[in-house]
Sequence to fold (648 residues):
Amino acid sequence: MHTLTEIQQIVASAIDKLDWSLPPHGLYEPIEYTLRLGGKRLRPCLTLMAADLYDAPLESAIPAAMALEIFHNFTLLHDDVMDHADVRRGQPTVHRRWNENTAILSGDTMSLCAFRQLDGIAERHLKEVLRRFSDMSIQICEGQQYDMDFETRSDVSIDEYMEMIRLKTAVLIASALQIGAVLADAPGSDADALYDFGLHVGLAFQLKDDYLDVYGNPATFGKAIGGDILCNKKTFMLLTAFRLADAPGREALLRLLNDNNSRPQEKIQGVTQIYDNLNVGRHCIDAMEQHLRQALDSLERVQLPAERLAPLRDLANRLMQRDK
Amino acid sequence: MHTLTEIQQIVASAIDKLDWSLPPHGLYEPIEYTLRLGGKRLRPCLTLMAADLYDAPLESAIPAAMALEIFHNFTLLHDDVMDHADVRRGQPTVHRRWNENTAILSGDTMSLCAFRQLDGIAERHLKEVLRRFSDMSIQICEGQQYDMDFETRSDVSIDEYMEMIRLKTAVLIASALQIGAVLADAPGSDADALYDFGLHVGLAFQLKDDYLDVYGNPATFGKAIGGDILCNKKTFMLLTAFRLADAPGREALLRLLNDNNSRPQEKIQGVTQIYDNLNVGRHCIDAMEQHLRQALDSLERVQLPAERLAPLRDLANRLMQRDK
Fold:
């Protein structure tokens, strides 16, 4: 079996080998720019890790891994357009560096290039992988739609929120693992167990993200604190605060959120104080830990020796401990 | 063999059966709206006509036909966003009726739904059809990129223009026919010949479109006259005028195009007068007829009796004779 570092290097090398040099350059330069923004490359690594569980040749999983990474970055590109974001990973977003039409069209092209990668998959797996990849991609759009719908609603429940993040972010992580297992000719029950593992890891990951937006260490977190608070984003933290607060507490919270005159730091501090009072952070960490436990339980259903599954187990644990 | 009318009815019925009723409705309502805008459904009809040449059961070609129609409408949706168009087929564009984020996300979803349709293809053809569909979809984006690039260039050649319309509009028509033939287990040389037929039909169709923008009959054409002239669109007509005019003629043309104070009718009449003087329309019709001849020559390479190919031949001829 390969170490995570070896897999990361294989993934980085494969991404580097993707050729975006053909014309029209106006179409492909923004794609290359987007993919070179970097990141952990978590999703393609998960595909290779899943294939590696069965000692499948990792090259056989590269095309699908590339498809997932390209598709993931397409969703970030279009999300940035829809959110009017100026920066991603410390660099200008594509619509800022070029223009909005470019962001739309190059994004469209990335999505299609992802499907083009699937031609590299072993033909015996193509129907199943295409179907899973297609379903996943549509679910991600549904999640994004719910996220946008929630912006203008004041009655979003925690269950609805969890369903939104399941679709928007968790199914991609789940599918990355599942597809890796399918390509390795794993038993269906193993592929399903890995999917569930990935789903719960994805949910836990987002809950951790919501927590760190409030209580993270800006030096290690890589993002400013309170960004979600400033744009009134419906996160687990905010929705839990509304759930736990009494009527006066909810009114106080709403006043803070709707106050366009307060300075950003005042708003962040005010909301954080309410979160402190209600122990919202504890509920968020509890929910995250519950999903981590469910992830590890799912991993136990994979019919392989525990030491084979150790890298995935460790990865799940490390993702939850980041940046505290 | 089926008549074109029977095929149109089968296509209309299949589009009608597509189910967009699941939530989130904010995502799927604009998709249903877009598909219900109507139109000739040319591309899915071509797929079925190609399959019909070989007496393949038309149901086997429906999923691919739906994929092509959904994909085609996705490109129109995003093109309208990038062009800031207000109206399509007499109705508000999606970003006008809803908003731009909806147009982007619902468009993304349509593109993905097109690929999801391919799951209904016979497995033995899936790899080939997926590859052809993927290549086609990327080429369409490349064509759109060139079209956008041309807006800010004053040195676009006729060859570049023809390459742009080949990618942007002709490869979809070509692929629709080719894929229908592949699904019917046609000989590869037949599928290639049908592809070439479709390519030349697509090019001729666009040239006719360019001509009708200037010389069409508004009552029968369905669009106002001179729209391309008003927005300085680089069409075959405009590029030919620049090619044929002497230096004073080019200056006169540029003055008309860059005059922001003239009334629309004045600009259209002025440019049309220059086109009249240079006989630009004749060049456009000549180019169109050349591609129509090449289309019919390609059709001759299909190894089937002439009467089998008659509906396609007639369709090509009718597309060229519209709205005069």
About this structure: Chain B touches chain A at residues 23-24, 26-27, 78, 81-82, 101, 104-105, 107-109, 111-113, 115-116, 118-119, 123, 126-127, 130-131, 134-135, 137-138, 141-142, 144-146, 148-149 (CB under 8 Å). DSSP finds 16 helices and two strands in chain B. The longest strand of chain B covers residues 87-88. Residues 48 and 61 of chain B are 6 Å apart (CA to CA).
